[in-house]
Amino acid sequence: MSAPVVRVTLRGLWFRRRRLVGLFVAVFLGVAFLAGILGLSATMTDAIDTSYQTANRGVDAIVRSGTEVASGADEIRGPIPVSVLDAVRSAPGVADAQAEAKGAATITGADGKLVTGLGPRDAGTWIADAALNPWRIVAGSAPRGPADIVIDRASATAGHLTPGSTTTVYAPDPVRVTVTGIATYGGQDANGGSSYVAFTLAGAQRYLLGDSGAVSDIVVRADTGVAEDSLVAAIGAALPDGVEAVGGRQATRDQIATVDDGFLKFFKAFLDIFAGIALLVAALSIHNTFSVVAAGRARELALLRVLGARRSQALRGLVLEAAVLGLVGSVAGVAAGYGMAAGLKGAFAGLGLPLPLHGVVFTVADALIAVGVGVVVTVVATLSTAVRASRTPPLAALTAVAVDTSAASRARPVAGLAVTAAGAAGTAFGAAGSSDVVTGVAAVATLVGLIILGPATCAWAARAAGRFLGGANRVNARIAQRNVLRSPARVASAGAALMVGVALVAMFAVIGASISASTTGTLGAMFTGDLVVSGGGSAYGNSGFSPQVATRVAAVPGVGTAAGVGTGQARIAGTAQTVTVADPVALARAFTIAAGAGRLAVSRTVAEEHGWHTGSRVDVTFVDGRTETLPIGALYRPTAPLSDYIVPADVWSAHNPRQLVSAVYVVTTPGADTGAVRAAVTSIAGEYGGLAVAGRAKFVDDTVAGASTLLNVVYVMLALAVVIAILGIANTLALAVAERYREIGLLRAVGAGRAQVRRIIQWEALLTAALGTVSGTVLGVFFGWALSSTTSNSGGGEVFAVPWVRIALIVLIGALAGLVAGSRPARRAARLDPLVAIASE
């Protein structure tokens, strides 16, 4: 690229810097969001990697069960015989070996309330060998007896506990213990957001495993100079069948890979989707802003051509201009990405989805990726405008008037209508045929078709709106309508960004309402109980509580059934699955699911995927390595809180002797005093810390509210895209005002007051926002119907429901946002001096 082109481009950028602020802001926000998401992903990865690396830092080998059931967030393995410890210690090259018993335990603070954190309630064995123990005591001493514990410093601080304090730990049964020590993990007060309780080995075996003859695993330290591979081979030769030895580094890699391939993979994909949405909306805003700027520079470009500049030079200058703006905006966006990551982390915590991590990690690679993406998106978004501007003949540009004829093209509306119709038909076809892929691809085609059809739709909508514009503001509204008709492509492009954001918000609103209606209807019909005892939110960290609760509740006068239901991990048909564990007889009294003793219950959705039916036999592999073939005794409509598989409790207990429950479903006897029964059940629940008791209606409402939490996260992630779209409208109006100085001056000269000019611009903003909001809302409801129908037709039984109040609120907020977007350009237009404005051209 020649030096004169670079100089002219850079000088032009500086001269027009105020008009380019909107474009800069669109790039800045889009890249800041992308950088924040990359930083949040890197922080999650670093936190998980650091946690496992710290845990295994001094471990040269781990002896564990050879059967693994991956849960997607951690490894699930069964216990091994404690007798293996002697064999490991006798193996050549072993300097020390310590057995661990692991589980979950919740701490009670000095005030008698449970100490809740942001993660699991971990519990384990205190290991005396410092090389094998990532925890370090900072106050007090190690536990000496079965009722002594060491806890993390974060829990000690939150619960006002010190060495010597006596308290209760639910592990899961209540245990009266003495805090002998306070410890830190890798220099931190806790391991992420998790709490930690460490017993002696005997105490951990007794309370966490319920089996003095078993341990969870054995950690090994090698003699000096012994290679990890040699150590693993020597230990492996002494192990019984079903038990394996792996190197410490390999175990760390396996643990990290399990999380990376499960939860972290989903979490990153979830974040990337919304980063892509924000960038798409930013690209639409960038394209529209650059189009307005290029249109305003038509005469400047024509003069350059007349003076000898080639078309290719004009094109390169415009591309360079976009690249420089993209680079500057991206660098600023990356600088703000750190704060964006911290903000997203805080937003997740505020919505009840805290992330277990400290600080924010932001790498150079992430910064380079964000800058590169920002520059590429900016250049691509402006390329078509640059090509079109460079091809304009000099004489045509010198004599051009400020009228956009884009909507007058016959080919564009025909193409847009064809793509939209094909996309809508494909979306409906995919929904009817239960094809997620077809529905998704066709929905995108529908969106693209509407963007192509935008100018023609805008012109039609403006003409239609003109019929209803009357009253005291009729003249102002008519002038605004005519201005929209002069530049339909510009208005449609500004509205398209808002249409995308609003369509996604409306779609998720419909999906959320449909899920809520489906869950309410299905669960209301399936659950026939009267009371539910549950873990009380995050108090138990999803670890479950003692099955004794179900036993004691069942003995309350007036209780007919107390069905204790838990969750677990198993491999079903070769795939790791989360399963519900319950006594089928008791469950049949609380739910309309009658599988029968020794039989598996499967959701209809899963059964249809596998071609199963009642009587089909399915292989189930448990954590002890044994496999049982169970017949399917019942099929049911999938609904929270039940998983897709229900395993009989007696079958489960044969392979998992320690099974917790996550809820107890209570059915009272006919004629029982429900008030007295609830009081008795509540009294029992109070003895186990944070257990909550809810009636039937409250239980259904709480279950539905769980889906609302995720929906709120989606709204937060979409909020930035909508903000970018609103700023795009404001920037388009500001540039339009700058282009029409002379016109506005003439209006003032013939008698228009400042208030009238201000209302004209506000009407333009309202029309633009209304176009994007209404079209986006209609599109979002259509997409929501398609996805709900896809799920329903595939066996999910989802009901289509439209949240009319929320939809009306979306439309109202969209209209108000348009008025807000137009307020500053309107004030600026109203303040113009008529004589100066008339002389500006």
TrEMBL record:
A Pfam family recorded for this sequence: FtsX
Claim: Transmembrane helix is one of the keywords in the record: yes
InterPro entries: ABC3_permease_C, Macrolide_Exporter_MacB
Gene Ontology CC entries for this record: plasma membrane
Organism superkingdom: Bacteria
Alphabetical UniProt keywords: Cell membrane, Membrane, Transmembrane, Transmembrane helix
Residues annotated as transmembrane: 20-42, 273-296, 317-340, 360-383, 414-432, 438-462, 491-513, 713-738, 765-787, 799-821
Family according to the record: Belongs to the ABC-4 integral membrane protein family.
UniProt-recorded name of the protein: ABC transporter substrate-binding protein
